[in-house]
Amino acid sequence: MKISLITVSYNASSTIADTIKSVLAQTYPHIEYIIIDGGSTDSTIEIVKQYEPQFNNRLKWISEKDRGLYDAMNKGIRMATGDVVGIINSDDFYHRNDIIEKVIEAFLNKEVQALYGDVRFVIPDNLDKTVRYYSSGIFSPKLFRFGFMPAHPTFFTYRRYFEEFGYYKTDYKIAADYELLIRFLYIHKLKYKYLPLDFMKMRTGGASTASIKSNITLNKEIVRACKENGIWTCTPVLLLKYFIKVFELLFTKN
């Protein structure tokens, strides 16, 4: 079974080498790696070219202007030829070398149509320091109305479902991944599996957590995503999730 991993980048020269090396280190051999760059003006593409020979023709990349993060993700998925597709951000990296092997083992069960796992949030200047552990184990589709979703960078599913159910909606700024997961897991009821493994480390400071303003935008888009897919919610209901985040911070261990 072939898997396609997609990284979207823009001026990611300080982090993308860690992402690429974590893909190269995976023990599963049948990986197609796709990098969609938004026309970086730093040394991102030089770094990509540096590692390209190590992939032995398993790496595809383009560098051109796009219409945002989700447009770039869609480009990558459309370029993919793997049976299964996953996203790995340009400032994240796999925590273990056998993650993709574990993912494929799960998909060998034909009942499994999608899967996800856990992530560690680390501070950029100390990648060994976990400041928050996000477990997707509590998730069920009924929790979408409360603002809960599986960790998106750990989400894998068959490429054909994007063709069947649709791609990321590019008119969302932050929460198109949330909306897509609602469609796949709530509306179309894909049979999913949770793997209790910490898939990757994510640097703090991403788009959805960068500021109070971005959190307001995120919650507005979550309300919109739920409404568009027939789930009732409102901003006060979504605020309940922040109590869970506090417990994650308090009880996180390295």
Report what the structure shows.
The protein is an alpha/beta fold and 254 residues long. It has a single domain (3-251), classed as Alpha-Beta Complex (Spore Coat Polysaccharide Biosynthesis Protein SpsA, Chain A). Helices cover 35% and strands 24% of the residues. It has 9 helices and 9 strands. It has helices at 16-24, 44-51, 69-79, 99-107, 159-165, 176-187, 212-228, 235-238, 241-251; strands at residues 3-9, 31-37, 59-63, 84-87, 92-94, 114-123, 126-134, 156-158, 192-203. Strands 1, 2, 3, 4, 5, 6, 7, 8 and 9 form a 9-stranded mixed β-sheet that branches. Helix 2 links the parallel strand 2 (31-37) and strand 3 (59-63). Helix 1 packs parallel to helix 2. The longest helix has 17 residues, at 212-228. Mean pLDDT is 92; it is low at 246-250.
Q: What are its keywords?
A:
9 helices; Spore Coat Polysaccharide Biosynthesis Protein SpsA, Chain A; alpha/beta; single chain; nine-stranded mixed β-sheet; 254 residues
Q: How many structurally independent domains?
A: 1
Low-confidence stretches: 246-250
The N- and C-terminal alpha carbons lie at a distance of: 34 Å
Secondary-structure element series: EHEHEHEEHEEEHHEHHH
Q: Count the beta strands.
A: 9
CATH superfamily: Spore Coat Polysaccharide Biosynthesis Protein SpsA, Chain A
Question: How many whole angstroms does the radius of gyration measure?
Answer: 17 Å
Q: How does CATH name the architecture?
A: Alpha-Beta Complex
